[in-house]
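Hallway conversation turned thread

IA: we were arguing at lunch whether anyone had actually written out Protein HIRA end to end. Turns out nobody had. So, for the record, here is the sequence (309 residues) and right after it the structure tokens. Reply here if something looks off.
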Amino acid sequence: NPALEDDSSHAWGFVVTSLDFSQDGRYILAGCGDGDCHVFEVATNIERFCLIEGHGNGNSPRCSRWDPANRFIASCGADRQVIVWEMPRDLDEQRSTVSSEKISRSFALEGHKGSVNCLSWSPGSDRLVSASDDCSLLVWDLGPRLALGALRQHSAPVLSCLFSSSGWYIVSSSFDASVVIWSADEFQVHYLLRQHPGAVYSLALSESEETLVSGGSDGLFIVWDLRGVLPDDLLQGAREQQVSRKELSETLRGCMADEGEEEPPGSRLQHRGEVRALHVSHGASFAISGGSDGKLILTGLRGNSSLRN
């Protein structure tokens, strides 16, 4: 925003541990070391809301997310809780520029037996999935505020999770070096992906749900082409066909080397350190990755989903 000055920043003396934009791009959500979340208006750089009664001072939110309808904000942390705040329906109403409006938590979801590392909203904003150190994922119904089911396959802490844009499946990754694709309605494992040699910290999925990217502890950056791998009924949200669990290490596209190529694209080190953040662009033309080596790598995704620098 050209109206913002170079010094348009905020400092509370707390670490900022998570960030998210509202779906309309007008607000920024920041989870901080005071255990609370803060909401800023992008156009004015003013803190509009402080979401209090969070995870407690010193217990930073590990993940904070707006829901797709901009009605709720959820965060999770080491206190084993998922905390939800309901936002005012008149977000764009003129508010005081002097101080931010305090909003108390609406409710907390409790059921995990370990720290909660990640969460993701369903596209309808009626469900949440959360990933925990207790090696499980829980799918929550925001109506009765209860867990609909537990997803158990991982043998180590679950580090990342996401709902597909259609809402018909869930993807998770773990310290056990696996990526799992789940049916969101039956809570069953559809596919178990194993090509990372170590912990898988980050995931990103294209809007078309055809391209999945995962990043691991060894700097591995792998593109999984789900076309022809996930059945059409799962991609399109149909429920009729039952699909058994399969190992994809030999059938996935986009991870094999061309003949004579020394390093298979997408299956060798891209970062000299852990890949901690990933995102796929609109249209799945590019993927951006961030690592503990201090680098951002922008990668083109070819038609066969292999990587090119």
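OS: looked through it. The chain has one helix and 25 strands.
IA: good, adding that to the notes. Residues 16-254 form a domain with the Methylamine Dehydrogenase; Chain H fold (CATH 2.130.10.10).
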